[in-house]
Amino acid sequence: MALDRRRFLMGAGLVGLALQSPLLFAGSSSGAESLAISRRIPGTNEAIPAIGMGTWITFNVGGDPTLVEQRTRVLKTFFELGGTVVDGSPMYGTAADVMGEALTALDAEDRLFAATKIWTGDESATRDEAARSGRRWGVDRFDLLQVHNLRGWQGHLETLKAMKPEGEVRYIGITTSHGRRHREFEQIMEREPIDFVQLTYNVLDREAEQRLLPLAREKGIGVIVNRPFQGGSLFRRFQAESLPGWAGDAGVKNWSEFFLKYIISHPAVTCAIPATSKVDHMRENMGALYGDLPSPGQRQQMADYVGSL
Amino acid sequence: MTGSDWLSYSLQDFIMFGPQVFLRLFMRLNQDIWPWTLVAVLLGLLVPFCLVSHKRRLRRLALGLIALSWIVSGYGFLVGYFGPVNWPAGVFGWAFVLQGSVFGLMTVAGVADHPEPFHEPSHEPDNGQYRKASRGLVVCWIVACLVLPWLPVAESGVWQALALFGLTPWTTAAISMLAISVLRGPWRWFYLTLPVLWVVFSAATFWVLQTLWLLAFPVATLVFAALGFWLSPRRAQSPD
Hints:
Number of helices of chain B: 11
CATH topology of chain A: TIM Barrel
Number of strands of chain B: 0
Order of helices and strands of chain B: HHHHHHHHHHH
Strand content of chain B: under 5%
Strand content of chain A: 5-15%
Largest sheet of chain A: 8 strands, parallel
Helix content of chain A: 25-40%
Radius of gyration of chain B: 19 Å
Distance between the termini of chain B: 57 Å
Structural class of chain B: mainly alpha
CATH superfamily of chain A: NADP-dependent oxidoreductase domain
Radius of gyration of chain A: 20 Å
Strand order of the largest sheet of chain A: 3-4-5-6-7-8-9-10
Number of domains of chain B: 1
Helix content of chain B: 55-70%
CATH architecture of chain A: Alpha-Beta Barrel
Oligomer: heterodimer
CATH class of chain A: Alpha Beta
Number of strands of chain A: 10
Structural class of chain A: alpha/beta
Shape of chain B: globular
Largest sheet of chain B: none
């Protein structure tokens, strides 16, 4: 095949693009389909992969060496398939220590977008809590610190706002889950200069579509979505059902992709953070980082289909 | 947080670990302390014979071993293994240590146990009630000691997950309820307080984890507590 100038320049451009961005061609094996879906963080335009990883329950394995090794393989798969955003909390038992062990074993700090939470009623302990979490994870600083479930949010947020210009953290935010305290959450989003909110949103729990997601877009706040599988209950409810015939047109190959692509195709969503303890499930989850996303019309079809089952 | 915020939480929100992690705690303990597990089995089987003995010294030895079982299973299993993944379990662990320590001290001081639990007073005719009660206690104890440890095995499918008396809190709490039968009145209620809380905590945990075989532990604890009262000397002294 003759290599003309146009083809050469196109090829060189693609190679250059791939080298520039770790999000592209991650786990490449299927050509154009292996372009990872990324989202810009509104405040800085920094791109992050639209699928991240949560650690609630799954990484709280105590000092069990077998399970620590197994979770390390889960994290390795996550990185290999193009993931970067990992979210934790000091509330999750030993999950932070296990994450620290896994990161050390993989020597993967440079690939990580580290997000954790401040979870203490003592509003003067923000820095101490962040430092303690940093030691447990083995990171010098977190990319994102969030006030967990608005616990002591006034004091913590003031400190976080002071930490950001000093370079102690790159982004700050607040979290909620299960649809709790949305009214107060909204007020904070209106008033405070936060970079991220984390909230529960999935194909069944869609309350955030009413106010919080539009507000996040309006205010330029990134959105991290927790409980994308409703704590696993979406699988228990729907896995026995078959996917709709049009699922392939919406870029969906399995239920995991169905649930995740529904979320990350919302224009306000920056990243969804499913949690898993199994390598196979991680592969399925990360499948949602590639391929087509459903259109607005297909999203409505997805919600209607699940509602009809 | 407001009251309605608290109401929005479910039991599941307080369980931060999965069944795999939980069931592996039993395997890890057994692997880590092998071959001391054999000693635990032997002592567990020895306790009921001492408990119904004519000699008060032997009965106190049995009560001392039961107290030690609370301490070992509380500190070893709950504080050492379960606490790191579930902090309330660590709190229960220290409560087990406290229960075992107080009970042990009271046993040494000789104030907790009934002086003649399974022996007919001289003024009563020998109608076999006391003998039957003591045999019933021994049989129940031995059967429980041999059956209850297999519940985590049934749940996990791994035989190394045995939950032995004296090493794991569920088997220890359940079986040692039978010792109520040799305690004096007020001490029975002291002895019962922690197990009641433990039953509630355990049942809630097992329900959330959907480890349904393990729900037999809290059920067995309540059944053996009732049995402990039923086998007690007061019952034996009032045969109808």
